[in-house]
Amino acid sequence: MASKLPRPVIPTLVAILLLGGWEWYVRSGRVSEVLFPAPSHVLQWFWDSLLSGELLAATWVTMRRLIIGFAIGAALGVPLGALCARVRWVRDTLGVLALGLQTLPSVCWVPLALLWFGIREEAVLFVVVMGTLWAVVLAVQESVLNVPPLYLRAAQTMGSNGWHLWSRVIFPAALPGVLSGMKQGWAFAWRSLMAAEIFVVIVTGFGLGSLLNAGRELLRMDQVMGVMAVVMIVGLLADLIFFSPIESWLRRSRGLER
Amino acid sequence: MGNRSETSPATAALTLRNVTKRFDGASGRVTALEDITLDVREGEFLAIVGPSGCGKSTLLSLLAGLEHTNEGTINLGDQPVEAPGRDRLVMFQQDALFPWLNVLENVLFGLRLKPDLTEAERLESARYYLNLVGLGNKEKARPHELSGGMRQRVALARSLAPNPRVLLMDEPFSALDALTREQLYGDLQEIFTKRKKTIVLVTHNIREAVCLGDRVVLFSPNPGRVQQVFDVNLPRPRRLNDPSLANLAAEVTEALTSHPAK
Question: What is the pLDDT of residues A19-36, one digit of tens each?
Answer without folding.
Answer: 999 999 988 888 888 888
